[in-house]
Predict the structure.
Amino acid sequence: MVNEITHDQVQEIIKSHDLCIVNFGAPWCIDCRRAAPFYKKFSEEFTDVYFTHVDVGDRDGELREQLRGQYGVGHIPTMIFYKNATEVDRIVEVQTPSELKKFIERCKA
């Protein structure tokens, strides 16, 4: 299951889950829409990982600028994997299901 969260909830979520992926994306983003089905599929497969999605879709860019500074999000989708509240790795503009699956498996190890 993919849990929709706001940008204000990110730190709380990271701290409260041992394994967590925060996916920063927007409804108007073509790459985000392409990745959504396999991101959802892996959320059902890797049940020990807490999957989230943060909508950064404000078109004026104010929220994106805030997130760029706070989380280093320059392009979307950006998926950041956290283990015990520490960033393990990130993947930007994921293209294929196999690429995302390898990312998750590598980060969990």
